[in-house]
Specification:
Layout: H1 2-7, E1 11-15, H2 22-35, E2 38-42, H3 49-67, E3 72-75, E4 78-81, E5 87-90, H4 104-107, H5 120-130, H6 136-142
Parallel strand pairs: 1-2, 2-5
Antiparallel strand pairs: 3-4
Helix pairs in contact: 2-3, 5-6
Amino acid sequence: KDLAKAFGLLCLVTNCGEGMDFKAIGKIFSGLCQCGAWGCFDEFNRIDVSVLSVISSQIKTIQNALIMKLDRFQFEGTEIAMDGRMGIYITMNPGYAGRTELPESVKALFRPVVVIVPDLQQICEIMLFSEGFETAKILAKKM
């Protein structure tokens, strides 16, 4: 969301769950394509596996339109406009109850990024050293 804000783009966050179907997701995708917004689908792996397979074909259709730099394309039986600024992002929390493993057809459409908690003490230490503090290691522990 912060990156979209820095670029001046709208980011629509959708909390995913078992009750979501491919038609609802398809309508969201269609809207993202037409207005050039980014879509962040939180806890994407909570969606039912049978629905994910249809969603993967929808995303592939959108990716193909982006690769070919089309202004308009056929999506779910309707010709819609394509704004090349659009993007689809997913978040997952694997290992919790009610979460499924993503099918390979879906995994292949996204680039994985692992997010971890930063080492704030090390960051403070480096910042203090770069500003000329000789006791940066001690000071960083106090922060």
